[in-house]
Amino acid sequence: MKRLTAILVLAAMLLSLAACRTPVTPDPTTAPVTDAPATEVPATEAPTPMPIPDFKTSGADFCEALVSGVTAYYDLDGDGLADSVLYKEEDGPADKKYTVTVTRGAKPDEPKTYEDYGYSAIACVFDCDPDDKRLEVVFSCEKDSGDSSAAAMRVNDAGTDIDVFRTDAGLRFDDTGLIGGFTSVNGFDTITRTYLMGTHFLRTRMTVTAEGFVPTIGIYEYLEVSPEHPYELKLEMPAKLVDEVGDDGESITLPAGTKFIPVTAEPAFVPEGGSARVVIRLEDGRMCSVEITRDAGTNVLLINGLNMWDCADFPDED
Ligand SMILES: [Ca+2]
Ligand SMILES: [Ca+2]
Q: Which residue, of 131, 196, 211, 299, is most buried by count of CB atoms within 10 Å of its CB?
């Protein structure tokens, strides 16, 4: 009898222990958790991830920067279950190592991690499209080379996996956060390198869709080009006058000695055999467009068939 009683007591203790176990929640690491949700939920025979009261949902212009080492909760895929995002910055021998781990409430055993290296970074959660029931996790870092890159993690439309997209453009940010802010309509500011009229950095606005990073305006603005230091044509250059609304008008020939600065480019990159339209501002204020092509055979950038680098002393900072 005593033995039976002991067995019953042991069984009761085991049941009690089992009842204290909480359902699986999407916490990918042991890092400190802030705003941690209440975990006291009734045990069930088949534990399912529970909605967490304080997680963030989508909304127009939603934008939140992530803090390194702090797990944040959102409903990234609109299924009503909390998903976690953990952004981590770790010192390395040279570059810093960054990781972003996304764990879905619906698939807590399948976290997805993106990893990159650089010296400065930012990670944000955006609602790029308020109607698609998705939030986008976007990470960006600056490299020693001066280049930037960015990655976006987004649950696919079918809800079966987390897509990871990359781009060679980076988010523009400083110590206080994003430069240029964010709106669901116009996206966020990005910076990317170009070789059109020399080595420059260009700014544009981008967003994230089911297809990845896409520009929202399609025009890239030159940054840090000073009107006080214009370029001077060594050769004459064909161009078109640009009217007030930005359309091309009359064809003209700019004589050697003309001083100008580049203002915008469409697009930032020119594939072999492709071309870009670069708008320049002359010293007298007139705006002109110039076509720059990339030769399909030699890969050289050309203006009117001439090597672009021979047309002016463009900065070459590789
Ligand atoms: Ca969710
Ligand atoms: Ca959305």
A: 196
